[in-house]
Amino acid sequence: MISVVLLGGGNVAHHLAEAFLASKDVTLKQLYGRNVKSINHFQNKVSLTDDLALLEDADVYIIAISDDSISELSNQLPENKLVTHTSGSVSINSLKNKGRKGIFYPLQSFSKTKPVDFNEIPLCIEAENTKDLSLLEKLAHYISPKVYKISSEQRSKLHVAAVFVNNFTNHMYKIGNDICNQYDVPFEVLLPLIKETALKIEEVSPNEAQTGPAKRNDQETIKRHLNLLDIKQKEIYQLITKSIQNG
Predict the structure, then answer these.
(1) What average pLDDT does this structure show over 141-156?
(2) Where in the chain is the domain with CATH 3.40.50.720?
(3) Phi/psi of residue 138, each to 5°?
(4) CA nearest neighbour of 108 among 6, 7, 4, 15
(5) CATH number of the domain at 2-150, please?
């Protein structure tokens, strides 16, 4: 049994708390929130606090807060304890606690209102020594079968890749939705295409899966598309078309 104190009241902390509470091998001893209202959802499930002086003893302390607050909070945590954070882009060196440091990064986009299945979520871990890495690996496997040992340098590159495949892709959905609204076409017509595109790259590489007028160098179709777009949409269309054509 591994005991955990989780610090944070946002989306990541919310779903980690749910996952730990559902595991028979993890004891979520306490949930800390700077504002207790942000963690009230768990008031009948686990001990809550907004006072760092009242933190309970645990095997692992996991910080799941905004990136720019990690250093300050970690500096106030108990000495000689394993302290980790969940950020994809912040180095392990950002942890300023006096003692052991690690990373416990779930690579997924989280919203409190949408349930997630941790069986499908990769957990990226890192630690300063093999003993702590083994502890984090065990903890990660208690909630997910997809566990990866990834350094801070690798994780920073992975986070950039995640921005492309998640945040930027979602912005493409937003633009597609705008175009549909403009021409009075239901966006839901595109949902099967979106799903098929995502499923396809489980079988072939993204390069092999690429289709469309840019891939075919279909200049007539590209011109017709550009005539339908506003200035900002046209700029994005041309930039991505050029990137596809350049491979």
Answers:
(1) 94
(2) 2-150
(3) -65, -45
(4) 15
(5) 3.40.50.720
Angle at 118 between CA 140 and CA 49, to 5 degrees: 70
pLDDT value at position 109? 83
The first and second tokens of residue 166, run together, are: 């998640």
Three-state DSSP class for residue 28:
strand
Alpha carbons 217 and 82: distance in angstroms, whole number: 54
Enumerate the CATH 1.10.1040.20 domain ranges in the chain, comma separated: 155-246
* Domain 155-246 in CATH 1.10.1040.20: yes
101 has which bridge partners?
83
Q: Scan for tokens 């392990």, then name that residue.
A: 92
To which H or E segment does residue 213 belong? helix 213-216
163 band by pLDDT with thresholds 50, 70 and 90: very high
